[in-house]
């Protein structure tokens, strides 16, 4: 596994853990441990609160009243199922789906009228619109892949903008014109510039942390493998497979991880630790994880992380290629999902959840130096946030893991 330096790998986030008695007694002075969530009953009773947080974000972002915003949140799971059904039915004529949160409508896109009519009878969810566009998802993803290779180290990221049926390549501001020259013969490509730096988001400070080799990371979701409890974390938290500890107590043994490319890994918990089916909401309560159904583009999503704690946004693009800057070069990341939630150094490894459905693991994001020189999310300098997560389902499938879910 190719790795970056330890300095760029020290990341922190948040996860529910029930510690052995000897460890739990040592957690009182640790802020993140005090807020790590609680029992299964507290997880179960907190779901309405999570929906309210997500609805608050939608209401503010799209000018909705609270009742309408709550209905939008409730509709997302069904929209996700309809989007997958449409994708399967359309096959090569699929041009992607997204939720238009302003109107509360799922938009399904096809490349031909015949395909539009074909899928129309298969969609059962009301508030679904089917339209014809010129480029299929496979065409756009192929263009994004070719552009990624052509631009090389000039590239910050390449993504499919489903709503506008195009590929967007982001490069450094001084590389915009050369990048446009490179892409001028490619159909459906737009080039934009940025002065932000995208990195795997690192921190060496405490939270509810896992320690390894002098560095610190955190964990996202709990799972099982072959009857044993395991934790899921970012792959760049496992550079040398050093054992994980928590408050200097043995916690877990890393087994397998991938980085760069994907950013995922898992470790087997030591005896006496039990992973809970939830994520920390940073108020002493936990949020239930009830599955990992993938939410569509446009869906509202929230993340839990050590630095910015609970923040929300919407899913903007999937299968994004990104160059994460590191000293002396960059790490090419693939298959990430882009959102506009606020993340900062220390949030890496954190959990992304839409409703009660686990979505992914914080991988990195774009930031600008703040007053103390520490990177901060872009909304604090008047720009749109850019954050990336590693989708969870590929990690579950790759490693043969069973996500722990709350059945209340």
Task: Describe this entry's structure for a reader.
The chain has 408 residues and is α+β, with helices and mostly antiparallel strands. 24% of the residues lie in helices and 37% in strands. The chain has ten helices and 26 strands. The strands form six sheets. A six-stranded antiparallel barrel has the order 19-20-21-25-23-22, surrounded by four helices. The chain has a six-stranded antiparallel beta sheet with strand order 13-14-15-12-11-26. β19 and β20 form a beta hairpin.
Strand-residue proportion: 35-45%
Number of strands: 26
Note the overall shape: globular
Low-pLDDT regions: 1-40, 202-207
Q: Look at the helices and sheets and give the structural class.
A: alpha+beta
The spatial strand order of the largest sheet comes to 19-20-21-25-23-22
Mean pLDDT: 82
- What is the first-to-last residue Cα distance? 39 Å
Figure out the total of helices.
Answer: 10
The oligomerization state is single chain
Helicity level, as a percent range? 10-25%
Profile the largest sheet. Answer: 6 strands, antiparallel, barrel
- Our Rg estimate from Cα atoms comes to 21 Å
Summarize the structure.
With 408 residues, the chain is an alpha+beta fold. 24% of the residues lie in helices and 37% in strands. The protein is built from ten helices and 26 strands.
Give descriptors for this structure:
single chain, 408 residues, alpha+beta, 10 helices, 26 strands, globular
């Amino acid at each position: 596994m190719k790795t970056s330096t330890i300095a760029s790998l020290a990341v922190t986030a948040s996860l529910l853990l029930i510690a052995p008695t000897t460890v739990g007694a040592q957690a009182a002075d640790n802020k993140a441990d005090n807020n790590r969530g609680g029992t299964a009953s507290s997880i179960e009773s907190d779901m309405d609160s999570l929906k309210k947080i997500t609805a608050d974000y939608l209401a503010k972002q799209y000018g909705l009243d609270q009742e309408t915003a709550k209905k939008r949140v409730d509709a997302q799971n069904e929209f996700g199922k309809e989007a997958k059904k449409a994708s399967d039915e359309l096959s090569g004529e699929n041009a992607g789906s997204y939720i238009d949160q302003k109107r509360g409508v799922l938009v399904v896109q096809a490349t031909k009228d015949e395909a539009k009519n074909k899928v129309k009878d298969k969609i059962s969810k009301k508030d679904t619109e089917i339209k014809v566009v010129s480029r299929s998802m496979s065409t756009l993803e192929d263009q994004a892949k070719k552009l990624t290779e052509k631009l090389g180290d000039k590239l910050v990221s390449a993504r499919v903008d489903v709503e506008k049926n195009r590929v967007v390549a982001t490069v450094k501001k001084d590389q915009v014109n050369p990048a446009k020259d490179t892409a001028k013969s490619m159909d459906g490509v737009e080039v934009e510039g940025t002065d932000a730096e995208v990195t795997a988001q690192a921190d060496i400070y405490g939270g509810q942390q896992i320690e390894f080799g002098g560095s610190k990371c955190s964990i996202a979701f709990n799972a099982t493998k072959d009857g044993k409890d395991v934790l899921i974390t970012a792959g760049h938290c496992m550079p040398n497979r050093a054992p994980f500890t928590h408050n200097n107590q043995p916690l877990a043994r890393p087994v397998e991880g991938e980085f760069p490319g994907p950013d995922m890994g898992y470790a087997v918990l030591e005896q006496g630790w039990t992973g809970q089916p939830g994520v920390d909401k940073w108020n002493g309560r936990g949020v239930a994880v009830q599955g990992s159904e993938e939410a569509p583009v446009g869906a509202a999503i929230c993340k839990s992380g050590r630095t910015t704690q609970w923040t929300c946004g919407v899913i903007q693009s999937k299968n994004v290629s990104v160059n994460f800057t590191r000293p002396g070069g960059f790490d090419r990341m693939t298959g990430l999902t882009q959102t506009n939630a606020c993340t900062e150094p220390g949030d890496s490894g954190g959990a992304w959840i839409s409703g009660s459905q686990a979505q992914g693991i914080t991988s990195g994001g774009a930031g600008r130096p703040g007053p103390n020189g520490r990177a901060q999310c872009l909304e604090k300098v008047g720009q749109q946030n850019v954050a990336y997560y590693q989708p969870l389902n590929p990690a579950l499938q790759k490693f043969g893991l069973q996500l722990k879910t709350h059945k209340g």
